Amino acid sequence: MKVAEEPEEPVVTAADTAVETIQREMTAFARRARASAGRMHPELSLVSYTLLGHLEEQGGCRATDLATHYALDKSTVSRQVAALERSGLIERRLDPEDHRVQVLHLTETGTEILAQVTASRRVAFRERLAGWPEEDLARFASYLLRYNAAATDEPDGDSPARA
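Above: the chain's sequence. Below: its structure in token form.
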């Protein structure tokens, strides 16, 4: 009669522990970011803030471009865009080169609110990072750039499951 062997415990490396810590802390960061967005401006969720920022950076774009850029379902973007339009933060304009296409642009109000929230977020980040040495800030920034660049290098883009 053969005695059943006990399964070996998986070896947990320092890298495994670090990846778990990174995942946990990034989740906490995302939770705080979502919660603080409402405090910065009651009508502006983190998703709305992100979409407005992209529209400003691009000088306007189509809703389908937003969906593609953020790897979101078109219906999700459509709901967000409708809410931003109702709030008077964005407007649709005909593309001067192709009148069949509508391009989303920030309104004057949208530009003002985005600037206010961006300034508030910048103050909050500066306060949180105030005690960090300049070298640590530069290193942290480079790590975030490297992490996000790796996500955009993937063939399917920056999918939500990959975070």
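Confidence is low (pLDDT under 50) at residues 155-162.
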